[in-house]
Design a protein that fits this description.
Blueprint: E1 5-11, H1 17-26, E2 30-33, H2 34-41, H3 45-55, E3 60-61, E4 64-65, H4 67-76, H5 78-105, E5 110-114, E6 129-134, H6 137-148, H7 152-159, H8 165-170, E7 174-177, H9 182-202
Parallel strand pairs: 1-5, 1-6, 2-5, 6-7
Antiparallel strand pairs: 3-4
Length: about 200
């Protein structure tokens, strides 16, 4: 039984990390999707009860977390962001550990961590390598405008809560051009996966 290589994905908002993760999933990698895992946690009764006790009924509506309310609270108050992270992060860490152990038992070559705050949450420390999806701001803004109706100001506001892109780029081991055409990005992604696994096997 061999340990899978753990690959972290980093990049700006709207860079195409989820597309790269989907390509890696098709290639047989196990994907840890942080957004999906947080959504699952937000359905747990213990999390619902804790959030309601902190922020009242406006934060939990009809038995579900009101994510818009939560986002407003944590963007306005750093201490509340820290409070939420201390609730969620240990549970998310346990989930990652379970995924990696399962991948190892099933001889999966790689586990991919797709998390918006890979460096900010120190998830890079759990990775063997980090791949930076490098996409120009204009391309990202166009995608976000079409997908979520964001404007330049909204993108800037969100990015201020994250590590600067130059720092993410410098701390990564590999990069992919996230503005490449889909088939070209697929080809480069799979080629890079082969390179990473080969490098691990040579160690």
């Amino acid at each position: 039984m061999s340990e899978p290589v753990v690959i972290g994905l980093a990049g700006g908002i709207g860079s195409g990390k989820s597309f790269v993760a989907a390509m890696l999933a098709e290639a047989g990698c196990v994907i840890y999707d942080a957004d999906r895992e947080v959504t699952a946690l937000y359905k747990r009764q213990d999390v619902l009860d804790t959030v309601r006790s902190w922020w009242g009924d406006e934060a939990v509506i009809d038995g579900e977390i009101d994510r818009a309310t939560i986002a407003r609270i944590i963007f306005e108050d750093e201490s509340q962001r820290d409070r939420l992270e201390k609730l969620l992060f240990p549970r998310l860490h346990e989930r990652r550990r379970e995924l990696i152990e399962s991948a190892s038992r099933n001889e999966v070559k790689a586990v991919v961590i797709d998390a918006p705050l890979l460096f900010e949450a120190a998830l890079d420390e759990e990775c063997d390598v980090v791949v930076f999806v490098d996409t120009p701001r204009g391309v990202r803004l166009e995608r976000l405008r079409a997908r979520s109706g964001w404007d330049e100001a909204e993108l800037s506001r969100r990015e201020k809560a994250q590590l600067p892109l130059d720092a993410k780029r410098q701390r990564s081991d590999y990069s992919l051009d996230g503005s490449a055409a889909p088939e070209e990005l697929r080809r480069r992604t799979l080629s890079l996966l082969d390179e990473i696994i080969a490098g691990r096997d040579d160690d």
